[in-house]
Amino acid sequence: MKTKFWTAFASIEQLDSTFIQRLYNYFGDIETAFNSTLNDLKQIEGLSVKKAENFINKKKGVNPDQTLDFILNKGIKILTFDDEKYPYMLRQIPNPPMTLFYKGDLFSCNLERTVAFVGSRRASFAGKEGVNKIISDLRNTDICIVSGLAAGIDSQAHRSAVENNLKTIGVIASGFDYIYPSTSKDLYEKIENGAGAVVTEYYPTFEPIKFRFPQRNRIVTGLSYGTVVGEAAIKSGALISANLTLEQGRELMCIPGAINNVNMEGVYKLLKDGATMVTKGEDILNALSWEIEGVQPPERNEQIPQKYLGIYNIISVEPKGFDEIQSETGMETDELLINLTEMELHGLIKQVDGDRYTKL
């Protein structure tokens, strides 16, 4: 069984995927690569002697059987680079992960219909609603939403996918011993328990260290046929993902937003440089030349009852607080509270950011 040698390589924290791939390509067999000697490695043209010596020293304390058992005992599944099921799109990038660890059902996701959503961790309400609108346009299709399970745009993309009956893949920047951010625990569980898969290239004990996040980004974009940028400041991880998308030869798309939002500066730079503008789900299909039946913006079939119309129109453009709504409608407190509660129950509005309300 060769898998244990892949997990043995993955357990050595100081190795990167390019080093492992180089050895695998040279020896043509992962077991031979792992058991190679320093003299063997010195025969590989251009390989750093320092890196070779580091590997020889580090692997002395590694037992391949134990690394495999450690992972399997945690209920973690394994997909290796030599497996025919390894995702085609990910295999095409310059430095694909050699081993993928995952929880959930990766192959319930249509890996030929993958779209990444990336953006600011400190996303605005409008930015998150924009992502939600576009993903809801794709509801009930076989499109799979890929993102990084971070706060902000990432988590909104995953949640919107789950709510709209879409599969989703979350790519994390640590091993499975860590949930980062901790506020996403429920999202991890939803994805692992039927909504898709949580994926990482990192051995379970590896921490979510800063440099691993941009490394993670290449997998998010690498799994996907195109990437949609929600919000992104000029210097941000989302801009790194945008550049990776272009380097990988994939389609880059952006959601426009308010020009006075600093998180839109990066988005408008990308749009000026030629990224495709996305304002509805259909734009993604057109950009990727996908033909999927039944994709159309959600429509509200029912009429808004007259007694709610005044409130509904007030919050139709942007969320409004209770006091603002009361000031504009002139309603008494009790009457307004009853109307707002009934409108929530009817699915016309929802409460956000404390006492603010937005339409659905």
Describe the structure.
This protein is of the alpha/beta class. The chain folds into 3 domains: 3-73, DNA polymerase, domain 1, CATH 1.10.150; 106-288, Rossmann fold, CATH 3.40.50.450; 306-359, Winged helix-like DNA-binding domain superfamily/Winged helix DNA-binding domain (Arc Repressor Mutant, subunit A), CATH 1.10.10.10. It contains 17 helices and 12 strands. It has helices spanning 3-10, 17-27, 30-34, 38-41, 49-58, 64-72, 88-91, 125-137, 153-163, 185-195, 212-222, 237-247, 265-272, 281-288, 306-314, 322-329, 333-345, and strands spanning 77-80, 99-104, 114-118, 144-147, 167-171, 196-200, 226-229, 251-254, 276-277, 320-321, 349-352, 356-359. The strands form 2 sheets. The chain has a 9-stranded mixed sheet with strand order 1-2-6-5-4-3-7-8-9, with helices on both faces. Strands 10-12-11 form a 3-stranded antiparallel sheet. β5 (167-171), α10 (185-195) and β6 (196-200) form a beta-alpha-beta unit. α8 packs parallel to α9, α9 (153-163) runs parallel beside α10 (185-195) and α11 (212-222) crosses α12 (237-247). The longest helix has 13 residues, at 125-137. It is elongated and about 85 Å long. The protein starts with a helix and ends with a strand.
